[in-house]
Amino acid sequence: MGILWLNEIDKNDIPLAGGKGANLGELLRNEIPVPNGFVVDSRTFLEFMEATGILYQVNDMLRGLDVEDTEKLEETSKKIREIIESSEIPKVIEEEIKAAYRKLCDEEGEEVFVAVRSSATAEDLPEASFAGQQETYLNVRGENDLVEKVRKCWSSLYTPRAIYYRVHQGFRHDEVSIAVVVQKMVNSEKSGVMFTSHPVTGERLCIIEAAFGLGEAIVSGAVSPDTYVYDRTGKKLTEINIGEKKLMITRDENGKTVKIDLPPEKVRERVLNDSEIEELVKFAELIENHYGTPQDVEWGIEKGNVYILQSRAITTIKERKEEKSVKGDVKILLKGLGASPGIGTGKVRIIDSEREIGKVEEGDILVTTMTTPDMVPAMKRASAIVTDEGGMTCHAAIVSRELGVPAVVGTKDATKILKDGMVVTVDGEKGLVYEGAVEIESRDEKVEGVSLGGVITATEVKVNISIPDGAKRAYATGADGVGLFRIEHMVLGLPKHPMKYIRDGEIEEYIQKLYEGMKEVAETFYPKPVWIRTLDAPTDEFRAMEGGENEPIEANPMLGFRGIRRDLVEDIHFRAEIRAIKRLVDEGLTNVGIMIPLVTRVDEVKRAREIIQDEGLDLDRIEFGVMIETPAAALIIDEIIEVGIDFISFGTNDLTQYTLAIDRNNENVAYMYDETHPAVMKLIEHVIKVCRERGVKTSICGQAGSYPHVVEKLVKLGIDSVSANPDAVQTVRETIARVEKKLILEGLRGLNAK
Ligand code: PEP
Ligand code: MG
Known about the structure:
Layout: E1 3-5, H1 14-29, E2 37-40, H2 42-51, H3 54-62, H4 70-86, H5 91-108, E3 114-120, E4 136-140, H6 143-155, H7 160-168, E5 178-184, E6 190-195, E7 205-212, H8 216-219, E8 226-231, E9 236-241, E10 247-251, E11 257-261, H9 264-267, H10 274-291, E12 295-302, E13 305-313, E14 322-326, E15 332-335, E16 337-340, E17 343-350, E18 365-368, H11 376-381, E19 384-387, H12 395-403, E20 407-409, H13 414-417, E21 423-427, E22 432-435, E23 440-444, E24 460-465, H14 471-475, E25 482-486, H15 487-492, H16 498-503, H17 507-525, E26 530-533, H18 539-542, H19 563-569, H20 571-586, E27 592-596, H21 602-614, E28 623-628, H22 631-635, H23 637-644, E29 647-650, H24 652-660, H25 678-694, E30 697-700, H26 708-717, E31 721-724, H27 729-753
Helix pairs in contact: 3-4, 4-6, 5-6, 17-20, 19-20, 26-27
């Protein structure tokens, strides 16, 4: 287990410290004023789960759970959380947490109040996707209280919404862990959030939202904050909107977090003066420059000192090709903040709490005071969302941007003015709600002075997909294609094991299921390329399926019967996949490509080609490639190319584990897992060099392709495309744009110097 002090960690420590923790460490290292603290790392959680035996119990409870069945989902989540919260923490773990707290108190010279927050280990769980979904406890004091809150943070990994999100985003429950950040509490007199650049257009406008007291008031949507817009190019404050701050959240004399009503004269008082705004903008610039991408920053001011509490990349800046606007005479019913762009028309459904989410049907307009994470399933069904309260970073705003659902927040009176069943049109860009179904006009948009939208990069930016359901949203990222369609998740979601279909004489049913899932993705992206990876079925993962009981028990499934070696032995299911793909190609979906996993030998590539051709699929019609996931494949790339491939894609998740002898799922060695280890980079460099010489395209689809620092290296090495997680596509594109520009500039400077 481990306690990591914030000043000891940086952005590379996400697997151990979670996104939040690693980020705070990174900021602290760069001299940004972050309150002192430590992280109870992700190994500790797993150790607790394993030592108490809960892990296996939980995995069993989640297997096969239908997350659309709200009641079942809630019941399962409740049971799991009860188990976690009532299990005793092993003494050594408890002592270590307490000792770290005592050290923090010693440093501060008193028994300190701390903020305790869960921190998602963001390898596969981008923090942004889980906004507001995990726990935060403010003003925690005393060892025992701290330990209890840590356990509560752990259990928050299994809230209904977190489980729901994981399933919908195609993550496996046993792939996740959680870290907990414990940080000295800043008892802010003023606090808020700021976007270092405009969150929708990307313009260099720093937008600051501020309220009195602790920042939770804004994030939870309890107040309508002041908004200040600072033009970073012209270096001036261009807009001041004073919000209605009816209350503030603060710490009372007993250390309790309380909401207090503000006196009337303070409700509309300006929160920040000019010099405080300039101070905040100074940090905004420092942080954005450090990360190279626009950030969403939480801050607080205590006794005149600015503290930065959190920073994360803004993931919503979009390439905006067309603008939609309303046509003709329209009646505006409500005005608010345009929090998530797009226009939605539908019937109003007013809901008071998550218990009523069943009322919201597909295409309705969800209207509520403020959304909560439990409303996410209904938010997904809605064609737009309107709230009474909240600013640009409230729950409704963040989540609707992620879901791609138009939203207007902070309208004050939506739940009073709108009536159940009435038809309205919501403009999430302009922040307006119109009466009736308004006619919409689309036109090309001229975007002037937008620095980040509309970026076209020479290196293609693709997206990884695991579930066909996610195709539309993945497509909406503007990705140049799918660089990895992992079909295992789709297959694991089928009623029975592939070989069981075959044994039951139902191969046609199996092919049909594969065909349908693949078609959804291929059609959505057509004509952009979709590289379908043939089944990479580890025995341990497939054993749980109906008919999976024959899966051999292996000591090391990672080194066992999986990938192409398995496909070639059980070639019957490999052939089923090829038949499904052939059907797509015959229907004209020639944008699909085939990629084979876990190659180690030349004859595997040869044999795979033979089988594909034997199934009558002409490899001249589609692209064929291999994953480079083993040092063996990297070192014999020359010979593999000889056999005939169009592309390679680095599976750095496996390439790293096989190069460094680090089981990618083993948390005891996770701290040594490093995709940028010189040995891994040497293999990658070698493969890119050879492929470039031989005219074979190169790509990456491992998780490292979603990390800007790795992407930067790969672009410099000359990779042709990068395939990232849907949420990382925009950041990756921005990173690539910046690196490419730098390379061009350096080239020009080199020429000029000659
Ligand atoms: C990889 O190994 O990097 C990869 C993309 O494959 P998977 O994560 O599915 O093993
Ligand atoms: Mg792999």
